[in-house]
Fold this protein.
Amino acid sequence: MRETELEHLLAEHCAPTLAGVKAASLAGCPVQRRRETARTVEAYDRVLGERGIRLRLIPTSRACDLLLVYRPGLLERTLSRPEAQALLSRRDYPVDSGVDGQLDCLCRRLAEQREFPHEVGLFLGYPPEDVVGFVEHRGSGCKRQGLWKVYSDVERAERLFTLYDRCRRAVRGQVAQGVSVLELFGGTDWGQRYAGAFLS
């Protein structure tokens, strides 16, 4: 994957995480040119890692590899909620090993399993009640369907859907004008220049 392709993928699928309003995002990457993709992702991870944003490429046996973009601090807070810890524990995650151990476990499952493990929603910042609802109801009978299936607080979900969409449109617009993701989020003053576009 070339740099321009990664820019568009990040803008389309990972903008809320880049903007700091979502713990993690997951996107598919074509398996062709896997080495080139890995080099590009590593280069972006080096720059964005200094701003608290990490990128991790997960090779899989599916038609596409997966790119996980996450904010370690925000993800740790998200996963430390008692409801999330309880579900992760039931799913045999090493809940005492911190966010890195839990991420390693998730990445192994994403790489090895044909189906997405349901608990991935916890890592992506979905409300634990909705992740549990999805598991218990086997994906049916939700109150609202958007970025995830909503089983609990529809108003809260609507607010998040709107916020994430604003982030996506703002980052997409900047990238379309030739501003790179590294310029947007890799510098020290991105918040002063761009945060209003995501949250207004």
